[in-house]
């Protein structure tokens, strides 16, 4: 692991700790400078310390009853941060893991994610960002507690030891609990340096630990966004223009207002809000509402037209190079054999199980927002803008998220809630229906791809060319300027093809459309991983090579791609016999700091029904915090990617998203679930992400298995568009 | 508006609601029992599964009037006091929940399965739970947890 150098514990320099200041209630506040531009961890006022409580920094509170509470500053959406982040703190704090309590942190600059530049959860960054700072926070608190004990006993701190929330002085046999030391520790100076443990001394990190959130999630007590209850709380539904980009012309609320329980009907930015005493009255009011829309320019938009345009732009469009090595065009001309294919992938919805929702209350000069959000910073900003209050008067209460997958880093549902609360003059929970959630999602981009490969006279792959045509998430959302031709999220997974090929050309034709776009689990790698790895198998077949062996040969020894590839192949029994009618496919993709290879075992019936029986996942995510959660995330990522590959697609007709509910947007069911076996590579590299890297390899592994079984390449997803059916 | 009286987890609850109000919204909005989730509103996802006189139903499409005077059981009533239902214990032991949103419905469907079939095969489990969607992909752990709970129940006799 990276924290150790030689045999000495890592010493964090004085520059890391800059500032200590008194807190109301006699506590101490430790200023921690986060790497990468994070601000000082000044959480005074947002994390108040009670009398006798030790709150040394933004993440830790220890009270006189010896209760250690870790503030979790990332959103728990299933990926396990509520368990994994406290493990980082507890390891160095020497807290008793069985007694550690957790709380979701408020919105505060102390919690800025240095990899994202704001307090947000996404991009599989939670552990990568927290690996060092949270351990330092725990170590600093431990040193202050030890120093307080040493002073009390008149002994040297170096002669004391801390374990399980108790400081002991072995020579004299004295001991004190953290609770007993909290008040004294709070009076101490912040240490100028802290020592972090060596990995060999970890007792928590790297060990499988049960999820701390499981008990609340099996008895109905876990509070998700939609479960927020407040005195006088109203519920709103917002009717949106069915046509993408359309505008409200007028509405007639006279009948809606007569529905029992409807309190108010009001136009807000996103549409017309029906605000009522509960979901059902809001629903009935919505049905009684008459709205006229100005459908605008997109009223005739269809998926077929979008796809045609992408194809045309593959020839006539303005292509920007994402990678250019050697001379792919010349190598293709000289090639003995060329392989050429078109690949297409659809727009995809996130389909979080919890529909979008948010609750807001504006009263007494402050705005409280209860949100299942992945982005506290943006939530706070949006609520401030709409409520008209300064940012520091907006209090964000993060609930559990019923799925995120990127969707909940947008703030459209927050804007709705604050606008409704403002319009109603009362606290309002806005509830999107499932249909609203699907039809007004922000989608994974659809793309059209043209690929060429050359094989020379000696049977070697001599050229690789990949042109991507599709809309840009970053351009649409103003994250890159109009002059920028490359959106790195559009080409990730394609431009970083890892194989040792002499001539590689990857380029991108930005083809924007009115369909709203946003981050979807594993982003560009979700489609490019499929396209690249599926086409690779076509090339291997043309070269007469085994697709695993060819990949392996084109990856250098020591390359982590090769490590996971070999492990997945070995665990899956690559090359070994299979029951009649089954075939295997393999793929490997690096994304979000981790390397992942998957082997899928698939059968295809005479009726072209596809069943995935087994998946072996090999993951190299560097240092592991909790292998149980890594395993869960691989299982989850496989299902998310497999579900999309089997049957998910968002299509547009007459400017409207055609899919509304799970009958039309079908996600994987338990009776389609393969056995998933997860194999974690033992690694001391820097911690990588785990939420997303398991998703990209599954679609190509399945597609490659189908090709192996049938001889037919799968060049369009979902499988239903390639002439197959999910079993 | 219609007055309804339901027995939920052994307690009597009353509400005055529109007669077509789904049981789901009376549980959540009128009674504050938010463990039962809204996922789709058209009986496609199973997140709202509760028991009506012991039978699993989708509360999002069950008019509350159908439950009037009958016994409703929700996830909040699955444990017996402090004693977790074997399925809840198994769910924790297998680390089933991820986001957790669908799990109330999964548990209620699984509880109904074990009540009528204490030794379900994998096929039985899949058939009983195929209407309960999970977007986090916890299906494999759900299967394991149902098997574990079935074994626990048999050991307890």
Topology at a glance:
The complex is a heterodimer of chains A (727) and B (157).
Chain A: E1 10-12, E2 17-22, E3 28-32, E4 54-57, E5 60-62, E6 68-72, H1 81-93, E7 101-104, H2 126-130, H3 133-153, E8 161-163, E9 166-169, E10 174-177, H4 178-186, E11 194-196, H5 214-218, E12 234-239, E13 247-252, H6 254-258, E14 262-268, E15 271-276, H7 279-288, E16 290-294, H8 303-316, E17 319-325, H9 328-334, E18 337-345, E19 357-363, E20 366-371, H10 376-387, E21 394-398, H11 412-424, E22 428-431, H12 434-439, E23 447-455, E24 461-470, H13 473-476, H14 488-491, E25 504-510, H15 523-542, H16 547-553, H17 560-572, E26 582-591, E27 594-604, E28 609-620, H18 627-647, E29 652-653, E30 656-657, E31 675-680, H19 698-710, E32 725-726
Parallel strand pairs in A: 6-7, 12-22, 20-21, 24-25, 28-31, 28-32
Antiparallel strand pairs in A: 1-11, 2-3, 4-5, 5-6, 8-9, 9-10, 12-15, 13-16, 14-15, 17-25, 18-23, 19-20, 19-22, 23-24, 26-27, 27-28, 29-30
Helix pairs in contact in A: 1-3, 3-4, 10-11, 15-19
Chain B: E1 2-8, E2 11-17, H1 23-30, E3 49-52, E4 55-58, H2 64-67, E5 71-73, H3 86-93, H4 103-116, H5 122-129, H6 139-156
Parallel strand pairs in B: 1-5
Antiparallel strand pairs in B: 1-2, 3-4, 3-5
């Amino acid at each position: 692991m990276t924290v150790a150098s030689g045999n000495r514990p890592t010493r964090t320099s004085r520059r890391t700790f800059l500032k200590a200041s008194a807190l109301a209630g006699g506590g101490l506040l430790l200023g921690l400078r986060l790497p990468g531009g994070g601000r000082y961890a000044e959480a005074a006022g947002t994390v108040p310390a009670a009398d006798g409580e030790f709150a040394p920094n933004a993440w830790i509170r220890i009270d006189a009853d010896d209760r250690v509470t870790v503030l979790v500053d990332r959103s728990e959406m299933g990926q396990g941060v509520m368990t994994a982040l406290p493990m980082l703190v507890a390891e160095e704090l020497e807290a008793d893991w069985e007694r550690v309590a957790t709380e979701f942190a408020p919105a505060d600059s102390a919690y800025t994610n240095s990899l994202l530049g704001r307090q947000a959860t996404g991009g599989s960054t939670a552990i990568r960002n927290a690996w060092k700072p949270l351990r330092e926070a725990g170590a600093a608190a431990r040193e202050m507690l030890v120093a307080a004990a040493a002073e009390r006993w008149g002994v040297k701190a170096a002669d004391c030891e801390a374990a399980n929330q108790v400081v002991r002085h072995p020579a004299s046999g004295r001991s004190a609990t953290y609770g007993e030391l909290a008040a004294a520790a709070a009076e101490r100076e912040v240490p100028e340096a802290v020592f972090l443990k060596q990995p060999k001394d970890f007792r928590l990190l790297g060990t499988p630990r049960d999820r701390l959130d499981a008990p609340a999630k099996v008895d109905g007590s876990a509070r998700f966004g939609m479960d927020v209850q407040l005195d006088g709380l109203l519920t709103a539904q917002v009717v949106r223009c069915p046509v993408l980009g359309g505008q409200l012309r007028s509405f007639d609320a006279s009948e809606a207002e007569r529905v029992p329980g409807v309190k108010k009907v009001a136009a807000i930015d996103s549409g017309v809000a029906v605000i009522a005493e509960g979901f059902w009255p809001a629903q009935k009011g919505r049905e009684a509402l008459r709205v006229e829309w100005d459908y605008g320019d997109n009223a005739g938009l269809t998926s077929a037209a979008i796809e045609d345009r992408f194809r045309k732009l593959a020839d006539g469009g303005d292509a920007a190079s994402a990678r250019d090595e050697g001379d792919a065009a010349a190598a293709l001309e000289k090639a003995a054999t060329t392989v050429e294919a078109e690949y297409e992938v659809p727009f995809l919805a996130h389909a979080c199980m919890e529909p979008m929702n948010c609750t807001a209350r504006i009263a007494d000069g402050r705005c409280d927002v209860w949100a299942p959000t992945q982005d506290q910073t943006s939530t706070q900003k949006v609520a401030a803008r709409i409520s008209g209050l300064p940012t520091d008067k907006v209090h964000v209460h993060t609930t559990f998220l019923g799925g995120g997958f990127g969707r909940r880093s947008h703030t459209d549902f927050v804007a709705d809630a604050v606008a409704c609360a403002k319009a109603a003059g009362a606290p309002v929970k806005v509830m999107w229906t499932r249909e609203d959630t699907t039809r007004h999602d922000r989608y994974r981009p659809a793309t059209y791809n043209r690929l060429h490969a050359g094989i020379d006279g000696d049977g070697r792959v001599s050229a690789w060319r990949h042109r991507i045509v599709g809309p840009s998430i970053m351009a649409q959302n103003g994250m890159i300027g109009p002059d920028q031709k490359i959106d790195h999220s559009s080409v990730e997974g394609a431009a970083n093809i890892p194989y040792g090929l002499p001539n590689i050309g990857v380029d991108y034709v930005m083809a924007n459309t009115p369909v709203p776009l946003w981050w979807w689990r594993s982003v560009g790698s979700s489609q490019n991983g499929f396209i690249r790895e599926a086409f690779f198998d076509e090339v291997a077949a043309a070269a007469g090579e085994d697709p695993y062996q060819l990949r392996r040969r084109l990856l250098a020894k020591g390359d982590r791609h090769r490590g996971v590839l070999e492990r997945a192949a070995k665990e899956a029994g690559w090359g070994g016999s299979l029951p009649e009618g089954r075939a295997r496919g393999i793929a490997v993709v690096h994304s979000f700091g981790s390397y992942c290879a998957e082997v899928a075992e698939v059968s295809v019936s005479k009726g072209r029904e596809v069943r995935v029986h087994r998946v072996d996942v090999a993951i190299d995510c560097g240092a592991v915090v909790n292998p149980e959660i890594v395993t869960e995330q691989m299982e989850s990522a496989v299902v998310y990617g497999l579900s999309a590959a089997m049957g998910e697609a968002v299509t547009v007709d007459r400017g409207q998203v055609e899919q509304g509910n799970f009958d039309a947007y079908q996600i994987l069911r338990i009776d389609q679930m393969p056995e998933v076996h997860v194999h974690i590579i033992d690694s001391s590299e820097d911690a990588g992400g785990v939420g997303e890297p398991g998703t990209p390899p599954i679609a190509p592994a399945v597609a490659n298995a189908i090709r192996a079984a049938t001889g037919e390449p799968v060049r369009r997803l979902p499988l239903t568009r390639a002439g197959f059916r999910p079993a | 508006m219609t007055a309804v009286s339901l027995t939920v987890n052994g307690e009597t609850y009353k509400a005055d609601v529109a007669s077509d109000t789904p049981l789901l919204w009376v549980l959540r909005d009128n009674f504050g029992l938010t463990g039962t989730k809204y996922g789709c509103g058209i009986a496609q996802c199973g997140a709202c599964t509760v028991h009506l006189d012991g039978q699993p139903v989708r509360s999002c499409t069950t008019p509350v009037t159908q439950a009037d005077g009958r016994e409703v059981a929700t996830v909040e009533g699955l444990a017996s006091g402090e004693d977790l239902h074997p399925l809840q214990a198994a769910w924790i032991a297998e680390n089933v929940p991820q986001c957790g949103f669908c799990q109330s419905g999964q548990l209620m469907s699984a509880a109904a399965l074990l009540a009528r079939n204490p030794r379900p095969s994998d096929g039985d489990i899949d058939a009983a739970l195929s209407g309960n969607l999970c977007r986090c992909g916890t299906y494999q752990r759900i299967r394991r947890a149902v098997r574990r709970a079935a074994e626990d129940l048999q050991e307890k006799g």
